[in-house]
Amino acid sequence: MTPSRTKRKFPQMVMDELKYCSVFYEGQFDDARTNLAVAQTAAREGATMGNYCRVESLTHDTNGKVNGAIIKDEISGETFPIKAKGVLLCAGPFTDNVRKMEDPNGTPAVTGARGIHIVLPGYFAPPDFGLVDMNTSDGRFMFYLPWEGHVIIGTTDHRTEPTMRPIPPETEILWLLNEAKKYINPELKLRRKDVLSSWSGIRPLAVDPNADPSRTASVSRDHVVSHNPKTNMVFVSGGKWTTFREMAEDAVSKIVEVANLKPKSKSKTLEIGLVGREGYSSNLPARLVQEYDIPYPVAVHLTRAYGGRAFEVCDIVREEESQAALQRKRELGDDNPDESGGITRIVEGYPYITAEVKYATRKDWARRVDDILARRTRLLFLNKEAAIRAVPKILDIMASELGWDDERKQKEAVIAYEYIHHFGGAKPAGDLGELPRLATEADLEHHFDLIDTDKNGFLTYDEIVKVGISIGRHLTEEEIASCITICDKKKKLTISKVDFVKWWNSEHANPLLTSMKTRMSNQPEGSGTMFA
How confident is residue 334, by pLDDT bands cut at 50, 70 and 90? Predict the structure, then answer.
């Protein structure tokens, strides 16, 4: 696109020195809803599914071949055995951890790679355009995209040890904000408090077990289906959403071969639509509005999340309306048939409604509050504070649907808040201690101006220390000396705002940035991006 057209399409983008924009197209989808739809489709086709089930150990026959597992129900605490002719392991970044149950001496097949995302209000980008920086200050990719009415910024990954609840490092959140700021129109200030949610994810990258472990070129995002002849275990490593059907077909074909199974037909994955396909059409949102009298944005959301099953969710809306009308009649003696209870949102400002919580517990296998917040809706991924406000309402609905008493409600509330704790928002996630010496330009200027009471754009050395305290970062003696050396070369005993902002985010006496660059120089080759 030409600069003038780019300005019309993407007014939030800085236009300085822009010569043209190269446009490419990618698709978006809701990975959590798709994951659930895949599992429910498997159940519809005859698979027996386990929810909140954990593998405690693998069982072996007299020849050392894996022939089943001991499973623990994480909700009830009960354990039970499962026997099988063949066992297929698909554990993502935790593949090698589970394989130790099968073969403690097995060659590693996966390496974990962590990346982070931050979410901003939707006004930071147009609804249908994003951008990508293919060469950030430390060599990574950065994506800046519209997502679910918001803007998501994500970066490529670096090696890490797998953990179930990775916390987004504050240093990388601030680094992302500063990288994104380079592309934002100066009319818009990008501040730390603009981050509505942030999280960290771990990608499983396949490792060739026969390759030189010192060479990162052996790491791949492509999937690998492997077989351990010693234990007869089949396992999948690596892979991505783009090829999930191919991965499944390859894995199932391998277990059929290894276990000497006799399927009735060849793979039919390309012929099988996911649940929700039936009843879906491009006009479904309008049909929902006309039939159920719900707001159009809610109808659009329900269509995207549930497909044709949105009708089932809306039937619960009617159920709620009938209950609300009956309650009004009891309380007020009001017998006006034209009144309606209408929809009830989980939290204001978002299209998620209470009928979805009921549907999730009845049909979508939700058993905990964080199931609703993160994996049936995307509220927690969009806005941490909104998710916190939604917990009591979700808790009450689930308690009513699942028969929880007060003690169980209290237990589930604790579990929910512990889960939320691992997300970032306007404030850092987890227990990170003192903030790193990294901040957005807008925040630095704001705190500088708070201390600069005479508004002349300069501060004394003592006042610089106060700026650090205002930001939440107590400057060390080494940092203060570095600031004076870099910013007051003419020995005027004052430091300008411009020089201070540049120094704060520089590598001078800032081991955090130095360690980040060192770490990124060792990132896996070919690790791809956070958005496939």
Answer: low
Quick check: 372 and 330 in contact, CB under 8 A? no
Nearest alpha carbon to residue 421 among 168, 151, 43, 233: 168
DSSP collapsed to 3 states, 307-362: HHHHHHHHHHHHHHHHHHHHHHHHHHCCCCCCCCCCCCECCCCCCCEHHHHHHHHH
Closest CA to 206 of 189, 223, 194, 193: 223
| Maximal CA-CA distance, the chain | 85
DSSP designation for 255: H
For 75, the token pair is 């909700």
Give the whole-angstrom CA distance, residue 17 versus residue 11.
15
- List pLDDT tens digits, range 165-223: 888 888 889 989 999 999 999 999 999 999 999 999 888 888 865 555 555 445 667 89
- Give CA–CA dist 358/83, Å, rounded: 34
Q: How far is CA 237 from CA 37, 68, 101, 217, in A?
A: 22, 20, 16, 16
Distance (Å, rounded) from C-alpha 229 to C-alpha 233? 7
Distances (CA, A) of 18 to 25, 125, 185, 189: 20, 17, 12, 20
Confirm if 140 and 156 have CB atoms less than 8 A apart. yes
Scanning 182-309, the segments in alpha helix (DSSP H) are 244-258, 284-292, 296-306
How far is the C-alpha of 26 from the C-alpha of 6, rounded, in Å?
A: 18
For the chain, the first-to-last Cα distance in angstroms comes to 24
Q: Which residues are CB-contacts of 22 (< 8 A; sequence separation ≥ 6)?
A: none
Relative to beta strand 233-237, strand 88-89 is: parallel
Q: Chain-centre distance of CA 262, in angstroms?
A: 39
Three-state secondary-structure class, residue 72: strand
Within 13 Å, how many C-alpha atoms sit on residue 354's CB side?
Answer: 22
Distance CA 262, CA 265 (A): 9
* Residue 260, SS3 per DSSP: coil
Phi then psi for 422, rounded to 5 degrees?
-85, 0
Question: Is there a contact between 395 and 409 (Cβ–Cβ < 8 Å)?
Answer: yes
Q: What is d(CA 155, CA 501) in angstroms, rounded to the nearest whole number? A: 24
132-141, 230-239, 381-390, range with the lowest pLDDT: 132-141
- Give the chain's count of helices (H) and strands (E): 18, 15
Q: What is the per-residue burial (b if ≥16 Cβ within 10 Å, else e) of 90-102?
A: bbbbbbbebbebb
Asked if 57 contacts 87 with a C-beta cutoff of 8 angstroms, the reply is no
Are 399 and 409 in contact, with CB atoms under 8 Å apart?
yes
Given a contact cutoff of 8 angstroms between Cβ atoms, the answer to whether 236 and 88 are in contact is yes
Could you tell me if 409 and 446 are in contact, meaning their C-beta atoms sit under 8 angstroms apart? no
Enter the pTM of the model: 0.84
Dist CA 433 CA 473 (whole Å): 10
